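Troubleshooting log. The previous structure file for this entry was overwritten by mistake, so regenerating from the original sequence record. Sequence copied from the archived sheet and checked twice against the printout by T.R.
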Amino acid sequence: MTRAFTTRRLRWALPAGVAAAIAVGSLTSSVTNSAAAEPNLPAHTAAQLLVDLETANPPGFSGTIVETAKLGLPQLPSIGGSGSDSSLSLANLVTGAHTVRIWYGGHDKQRIALLGQLSESDIIRNGTDLWTYSSTDRQVTHSTLSASETKGLAHHDISGMTPQAAADAALKAIDPTTAVQVDRTARVAGRAAYQLLLTPKDSRSLIGSVRIAVDAQTSVPLRVQVFAKSATSPAIQVGFTDVSFKTPNASVFTFVPPAGATVSHGNPLSGPGFPGGENMPQRIKDGTPSSGAISQDTSGPQVLGKGWTAVLKLQDHGLAAGADNPGSNLGAILDKIATPTQGGRLVTSALFTVFITDGGDVYVGPVSAEAIRQVASTGHGL
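Regenerated output below.
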């Protein structure tokens, strides 16, 4: 569930029918105010909060988001990017802590800045204009969206590194194997919030629980915390440290390339240093499979199983053990952290396991090494 800037378009409005996926009668409210810091809010059931999340649609906001990943992975190499701590690279976004400034002015106006100590990487969408900028190498990329591309993006944002996107991913996993309740209230970014607690009933999942803080006034997710089994601190946390629900001034979304910057034209999300860019196979960039079913396109990504034990299969991506693939960001990272095992290589972490077969197929899921190898051997979900 890590989440970076990708070309996977994630909605601000949550999936329709989420509330209907759980029997309302089984949902209970356990809002407590045992601590002075916990705001005293009117009682809400989980069903009410799910409906509020699904219908939340703020006209605009801005704020600072901090994403923290503590997955138990070793320090990853910086490959295929600038090496800057603000580089939009896979290595940067799955370890450590990262700060993002975000401005949202509607479905066609968004700006995201990934901040480093001495650098910044930006993605800006303003109508049909899509820009990226890296202060490290002073590279600017611009593209003009076609009518069909604009229509396809009409109800989507350009970033997956937000509490909303993380909440979206968690809520998609809700099914009868999920226990849902209202946890104690909280203050996040100075705002009063309810907290939804999602707990997988399936003991085979590495995920212990997911806690979503929901703004009491706007119903926008303010923070998402993902806990591994038996853990007391989150393995992944994405949350606002400050937020304003005022629509940003239109000038925020007007980008003028800085003097001396190199400007190129094309898809700004396909360049080096961006996950899903030129170092990633095309079929990963262009498709995100629907959960709960196996795609009929066997050359593209497939989801095996559903819910909290779903495993993503990426078929034959040139990551076979010993493959000569020096230009692959992902391949080099896997070489650094993978452990040889029968039939391939394994990467284990607190929340997920990756199995790369000797043939180059990649299986990723929130399950144990034994379970993911079972999925790989049978071709079916758990």
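Confidence is low (pLDDT under 50) at residues 1-36, 77-93, 270-297, 322-327. Archived copy saved in two places this time.
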